[in-house]
Specification:
This protein is of the alpha/beta class. It is 43% helix and 17% strand. It has a domain of 236 residues: Rossmann fold, CATH 3.40.50. The structure holds nicotinamide-adenine-dinucleotide and thymidine-5'-diphospho-beta-D-xylose.
Length: 353
């Protein structure tokens, strides 16, 4: 065969998934990369325009809950590995629509595990099921301390409860059936292709349009931010070198209270847009808090650093500047995702086959 591995990457049309797909397609020409994505509101193939014609890349529109379709993909491609990122990912949406999160995050994950169990059972040793998860499963910290790989799960939102459940199923399939798995739990990502419902791209988009910048509650909640390309690099490393059955926490020791982050972003964008210092800060508006809003997340990524030598490659200042520049240079991307026009891209590129 032409390829040494055939890897399904789920959620490859989404924010983080698109960076992982690009990295694998470009760095590993001997791997076949099968991007499996349902193209929900969050999936956008424009994210992968630059690599869509690569000989080692294919896109398959499929819902991970659709067992028949997933099984047929395992057969058709002789799938050797899964890197699983597809999920409903937005906490606020999980508060209004929890069942969508159960269906995709829990049932979708178990559907993939079932396929792995069915098609890999002859020889587990040459396979890997890599599940991408979040620090939110650990719950909320006070002002002190960090989440480590042994912190007890304590999810509070329907989103984090669904991710926690999926993590448990992945480990259960390892312990019960011997499926080779690895799990990583990462802190908040930011960077290009981030859907403008999430804090940082929402702020950038609203500043560009002179719209209010909604800060939930008192703005003192703390998040730990990592540049998406550093997450993709960690995923690459863990996929290749992570220990079977292990969990790795990923984070950049980069904590920010929301309000401080909002102010830094306002200042950087004043400068980039040639506005008077202080202009964008006037857009800050404190709004009703998110129900069950976790106070603080902070990842201890010591294990990943000690065992696999990973560390972030960019500072927050650099990453944020690159992110803002990307949004300024890709205003049509924002227009397309906010208007839903990116759905046409799929119709044009793929449905005409
Ligand atoms: P995203 O919402 O940008 O992308 C999700 C992708 O999954 C989309 O392309 C969507 O079309 C696809 N998808 C959704 N439901 C599907 C289904 N039923 N079948 C097939 N495809 C489906 O999400 P993201 O921010 O890129 O997150 C990717 C993964 O990383 C998720 O598992 C998330 O929990 C995890 N994670 C995210 C962050 C973060 O800060 N964004 C941090 C840590 C972990
Ligand atoms: O308009 C807003 N105003 C605001 O104050 C939004 C959208 C958010 N916030 C706050 C809530 C959080 O404290 O900013 C913080 C970040 O919010 P989000 O961008 O919604 O991210 P978060 O809820 O922390 O979850 C993210 O990180 C972990 C991702 O969406 C998850 O998928 C990931 O698992």
């Amino acid at each position: 065969d032409r390829f040494t591995k055939s890897i399904i990457i789920t959620g490859g049309a989404g924010f983080i998934g698109s960076h992982v797909v690009r990295r694998f397609v470009q760095n590993y020409p001997n791997y076949q990369i099968i991007n499996v994505d349902a193209l929900t509101y969050a999936g956008n193939l424009e994210n992968l325009k630059d690599i869509e014609h690569s000989p080692n890349y294919v896109f398959e529109r499929a819902d991970i809950k659709d067992a028949e379709k997933i099984n047929s993909l395992f057969e058709q491609y002789g799938v050797t590995d899964v890197i699983h990122l597809a999920a409903e990912s937005h906490v606020d949406r999980s508060i209004t629509n929890p069942l969508d999160f159960v269906y995709t995050n829990v049932i979708g994950t178990v559907t993939l595990l079932e396929a792995a169990k069915k098609y890999w059972s002859a020889d587990y040793s040459s396979h890997r099921f890599y599940h991408i998860s979040t620090d939110e499963v650990y719950g909320s910290l006070g002002t002190e301390g960090f989440f480590t790989e042994t912190t007890k799960y304590d999810p509070h939102s329907p989103y984090s409860a669904s991710k926690a459940s999926s993590d448990h199923f992945v480990r259960a399939y390892h312990d019960t059936y011997g499926i080779p798995v690895v799990v990583s739990n990462c802190s908040n990502n930011y960077g290009p292709n981030h859907f403008p419902e999430k804090l940082i791209p929402l702020l950038i988009n609203n500043i560009l349009n002179n719209k209010p910048l909604p800060v939930y509650g008192d703005g003192k909640n703390v998040r730990d931010w990592l540049y998406v390309k550093d997450h993709a690099r960690a995923i690459d490393l863990i996929f290749h070198e992570g220990k079977n059955g292990d969990t790795y926490n990923i984070g950049g020791f980069n904590e920010w209270a929301n309000i401080d982050l909002v102010r830094v972003l306002c200042r950087q964008m004043d400068e980039k847009l040639g506005r008077e210092p202080g202009t964008n800060e006037k857009l800050i508006t404190f709004v009703k808090d998110r129900p069950g809003h976790d106070a603080r997340y902070a990842i201890d990524a010591t294990k990943l650093n000690k065992e696999l030598g990973w560390e972030p490659s960019v500072t927050f200042e650099q990453g944020l500047a690159e992110t803002i520049d990307w949004y300024l240079a890709n205003k049509s991307w924002i227009e397309h995702v906010t208007s839903g026009a990116y759905a046409d891209y799929y119709e044009n590129q793929y449905d005409k086959r």
